[in-house]
Each structure stands twice: as C-alpha cells, then as structure tokens.
Design brief:
Blueprint: H1 2-15, H2 23-103, E1 107-117, E2 124-127, E3 140-142, E4 147-154, E5 159-163, E6 177-181, E7 190-196, E8 201-207, E9 218-221, E10 233-242, E11 249-255, E12 264-269, H3 271-275
Antiparallel strand pairs: 1-2, 1-12, 2-5, 3-4, 3-12, 4-5, 6-7, 6-9, 7-8, 8-11, 9-10, 10-11
C-alpha cells in the first residue's frame, strides 16, 4: 500500500498541469483505487470491531455499577422497612404506656424477649431485665395488647416469666386471676383459673347469674388478691354457659396477648412492688 501511495505521488508530480493521462497512468490509478477499496473495508471493519470491544467494556463497567447500586438499594430498603416497623412498634408502645399512666399509677419497664421455652412441663419466657433493673418475683408482665404472665424467677440480668397459658385449676402453683368486665367493674366478678391448650382459650368461673357479662366484653384484672394489679386486659368474652352445679356461670375468654409472636413486653412496676409493701 505504501508503494502504491508513493507511486501515485510520483505520478502526481510527473503529471503536473497535463490535462490528459496516458493509458499506463489510467491503469495505475484504477489499480490503486481497486486495492484501496478492498483494503479500506477490512480496515474499517476491524476498526469498528475494536470500537465495539471498547464500548462493551464500558457497558460491562456500567452494569457492574448498576448491580452494586441495586444491591445497596435492596439493603437500604430492608433496613428502612425494619426501622419503619420498629418505629411503629415503639410508637405503639409509647402510646400504650401513656394511656396506662392515665389509668393507674404504674411504671412500665420495657423488656426484650430473649427466649421462649415451649416445653409443656416447663413453659417459660425469658426477658432481658433482672434484679439490677428493679425486677422482683410476681411482677406482672404484659404486652400493649394484654396480660402475659408473672415473673417467676429473677436473676441479676434476666428473668423468667410464667405465662397465663400455664393456668391450671387443678394445680396448686397456679395463681388465679381475679377479673371483672371493663366498664362494669362494680357489677361483674369472676376468676380466670384455667387455660385450654387445645382451644387456646382461658376459662373464667364463679360468675354470678346476675352478672352483666356478655359476649364481646373486655375482661380485665380487678386488682383483688394483691397479685395482679387492677386494669390489666386479659381478653375478650367468647361465650358463657351455666357452671357445673347450675349456681354460677363460666365464660370462655380469648386471650388478648399474642403468645406466638412475643418480642417486646412490659414489666408492670406498681408502687407496692417498688416499696416491697402489699396494700391490704
């Protein structure tokens, strides 16, 4: 190709101002154009191919950056959703404590559930508050929905909670719950003393035949017995029926607390539990 170029250049100098070329000159120019045509096309293809390779490298780098950005977005989305859920939970907890403060002079210590033992012979819940946090045995534990149970064993940094799902009318260790109907505290009374593991319902007994209790009522602790403070929500009346001897009624209660998804609970600190005294 260099030879052809030099040849054409020499011809250009030799032609000068002549208007007509000789046939060898025509032949040389046509031959040069023919070879240039066939050499230029492959060179153009090769040049375009290298450009495509360069463009592919840029596209690959852009795809890598997009993949990294997508992964970061997914991570941040999960983090945001978790924080949003946690914020909502904390807002619900705050509203619950403020609402309860208006009803009773209680303090609510928030605790995280660290373990749940589902052994039917030793069903307990472990929380991350202990004696160093002011926790004592027989302190009530609740969620923002309802009653969970009582602290049974207290260690320096952790405590065990005996849930109300362990209530058994035939057990000597069961602490029965004196209960009443919300809004009818002076007219209604009963004892929540049993939990049916098959139905997942609580049983309330010793209800007077004149008791205004009816289906859909909210059952709360009455405060009698000096174990469960007044005003703790236990559940909702599902049904009522005549007792074994026909003198009193029994009611089936759906627990308010969700025992299958316990993550955060509150330990209720009453003025009596702080001073160690029990109000007669």
């Amino acid at each position: 190709m260099i030879v052809f170029i030099l040849f054409v250049a020499v011809m250009g100098f030799s032609i000068g101002d002549r208007k007509k070329l000789t046939w060898p000159e025509y032949f040389a120019l046509d031959t040069t154009g023919f070879f240039q045509q066939w050499l230029y096309r492959p060179a153009g293809y090769i040049s375009d191919m290298f450009k495509d390779f360069s463009h592919m490298r840029e596209v690959y780098k852009e795809n890598e950056q997009l993949r990294i950005a997508a992964a970061a977005y997914a991570r941040d989305s999960i983090k945001y959703n978790f924080m949003e859920s946690e914020l909502k939970q904390l807002q619900d907890d705050l509203h619950f404590t403020e609402r309860q403060k208006q009803l009773n002079n209680y303090k609510y210590l928030i605790a995280q559930v660290v373990a749940v033992n589902n052994d039917p012979y030793d069903e307990t819940i472990r929380i991350n508050l202990g004696s160093r946090d002011g926790i004592k045995p027989n302190m009530v534990v609740v969620t923002n929905k309802g009653l969970v149970g009582l602290t049974s064993r207290v260690d320096p940094f952790f405590s065990s909670v005996m849930p109300i799902t362990k209530l058994n009318v035939n057990s000597t260790d069961t602490k029965q719950i004196a209960a009443t109907v919300l809004g009818k505290e002076k007219e209604s009374f009963g004892i929540v003393d049993n939990y049916d593991t098959e139905t997942g319902k609580l049983s309330m007994s010793k209800i007077s035949e004149t008791d205004p209790l009816k289906k859909g009522d909210t059952i709360i602790t009455s405060g009698l017995g000096n174990v469960f403070p007044r005003g703790m929500v236990i559940g909702t009346v599902d049904s009522s029926q005549v007792g074994d001897f026909g003198l009193t009624y029994t009611a089936t209660i759906t627990p308010a607390a969700d025992f299958d998804h316990l993550t955060e609970v509150f330990v209720v600190q009453t003025p009596e539990s702080e001073t160690g005294e029990v109000t007669p």
